[in-house]
Amino acid sequence: MVAPSRVPKPKAINCPNCGGNIELRGFAHTRSAVCVQCCSIIDPTTPELQILQQFDERLRVRPLIPLGSRGKYRGVPYEVIGFQVRSINADGVEYSWHEYLLFNPFKGFRYLTQYDGHWNDVLTVHGLPAFTTLGGRKAVTYNNVPYKHFQNAVARTAFVMGEFPWAVRVGETNTVDDYVAPPYMMSSEQTDGEVNWSFGTYIAGSEVEQAFQLKTKLPAPNGVYANQPSPFQGKVRASWRTFLMLCLVWAVLVAFFTFSASNRVIFDQNFHFAQAVPGEHSFVTQPFDVPGRGNVEVELSTDLRNNWAYFSLALLREDGAQGFDFGREVSYYSGRDSDGSWSEGKAKDSVILPKVPAGRYYLRIEPEMDAQASATAASGMTMNYEVTVRRDVPTTWLFWLVLPLLLIPPILTSIRSMTFEGRRWSESDYAPASSSSGDDD
Fold first, then answer.
1. Contact assessment for residue 100 and residue 80, using Cβ atoms and an 8 Å cutoff
2. Average pLDDT for residues 63-72, to the nearest whole number?
3. How far out from the chain centre does Cα 88 lie?
4. What is the reported pLDDT for 213?
5. Tens of pLDDT, residues 293-313
């Protein structure tokens, strides 16, 4: 039976400034440690425990994950041994974030960073990314994944606590470049000619809470972070793909209803109308059969020119059981002016009567023209017109009303995705420039 491996016990030292006890959990990796009693930064690698720096007690920040917390993160037990606050200054505004140093004697170090409720799991990388460009902006490629440049800033260490595998200093600065490919981030830190790269993955605060069994709930995320994954990632393409599939179904249905309709002509006759002819202008047609079931279309085609006519119509059943009264106005005007030729209206019109029962019907027609307009029209006060009646004509207007509705989901999803990305990049070096005319007045 193999005995379980033991976790080495931390080494303890006394602070040379105040005598306080300091436990070194990073063992031989520790290059600096902070006394929590007097805020002295100590070099534990020297026998005399040299004091490297002291900082103001009033700068003390309480970490959300207490130092010494142990938990199983990503299946590996880790202990929080270091904590620091770093900040950048952008347009006169100070932005700060927290970094937690995790240590496992067998796995080494990893970091958790927190800004405004947003968390990242960060690992130091040893391979160098390749520099490239995306959309005219600088970028890097790492493991065949392209990362867009997000921002360049000078980061300053504002507060430290615990121990670190490097000689940490309050006030030290590094030039930082962040590149994003949500949910991932590549970051470079340059100081004194040395460049270190790290790889971050956006994680939920609940994962940190669970890993370290925190009793206090972590702050909720505020705003959109640089590498925060979009909740619409993949949804925009999926919504447009669904729209195209529905359009295909829509087209098939339109074709089906169009070609399955009989669209049969059951009556067609030409007539002549003269406004000046005295007497009653209404008349009835010869009876005609309306077979089967469905709708009925009545179409009027005229030779009107620069005139209008009104038709009072009725489709009446020969046995007097049922009738449909309706009217249509037809007008057509054209001419030429300084802008060229123009026209208005149409010389034909139609109406569809839904659900007309089968039977024998006739039409009552009463045309009427504007006497004053007819007097000046080229055709005078007369017109020729044709009446065509069709049974079971295809009606697709309802389908055309549905088509714009199908566009609503993909358009809304696209707008919401663009809004989310706009909020992300508004915090970058590539934010849209805002007008400053008010400041210039």
1. yes
2. 91
3. 30
4. 92
5. 899 999 999 999 888 999 999
In one-letter notation, the amino acid at residue 437 is: S
| Half-sphere exposure for 170 (CA within 13 Å, toward CB) | 22
Coil, strand, or helix at residue 420? helix
Helix (H, G, I), strand (E, B), or coil: what is residue 406? helix
Do β-strands 32-34 and 145-164 pair in parallel, antiparallel, or remain unpaired? antiparallel
Residue 379 is predicted with a pLDDT of 54
Q: Which residues pair with 80 in a beta bridge?
A: 102
Question: Are 184 and 199 a contacting pair, CB within 8 Å?
Answer: yes
Query: What is residue 367's predicted lDDT score, i.e. its pLDDT?
Result: 94
CA–CA distance from 186 to each of 117, 123, 140, 189, 423 (Å)? 20, 10, 8, 10, 20
pLDDT reading at 378 higher than 60: no
CA pair distance 322, 188, nearest whole angstrom: 85
| Nearest partner of 233 among 279, 284, 182, 184, judged by Cα | 182
Element (H, E) at 116: none
* Type and span of the H or E element at 412: helix 397-425
Beta bridge partners of 153: 176
pTM of the full structure? 0.74
At 195, give phi and psi (nearest 5°). Answer: -120, 125
Contacts of 24 (CB under 8 A, 6+ apart): 10, 11, 12, 13, 30, 33, 44, 163
Q: Do 10 and 33 touch, CB atoms closer than 8 A?
A: no
For tokens 């970091």, the residue is 111
Of 436 and 198, the structure prediction assigns the larger pLDDT to 198
Distances (CA, A) of 250 to 45, 245, 392, 401, 407: 75, 9, 20, 11, 12
Place of tokens 């981030």: 185
pLDDT band, very low/low/confident/very high, at 400 (cuts 50, 70, 90) = confident
Task: Count other C-beta atoms under 10 Å from residue 383's C-beta.
Answer: 24
Q: Which residue has the tokens 């930082």?
A: 176
Reference 287, options 350, 384, 359; nearest CA is 359
**Phi-psi region at 92: left, alpha or beta (left = phi > 0; alpha = psi -120 to 50):** left
DSSP state of 438: H
Cβ atoms of 39 and 160 closer than 8 Å: no
Residue pair 149/133 in contact by the 8 Å Cβ criterion: no
Report the SS3 class of residue 439: helix
How is 231-300 classified by DSSP, letter by letter?
TTTTHHHHHHHHHHHHHHHHHHHHHHHHHHS--EEEEEEEEEEETTS-S---EE---EEE-SSS-EEEEE
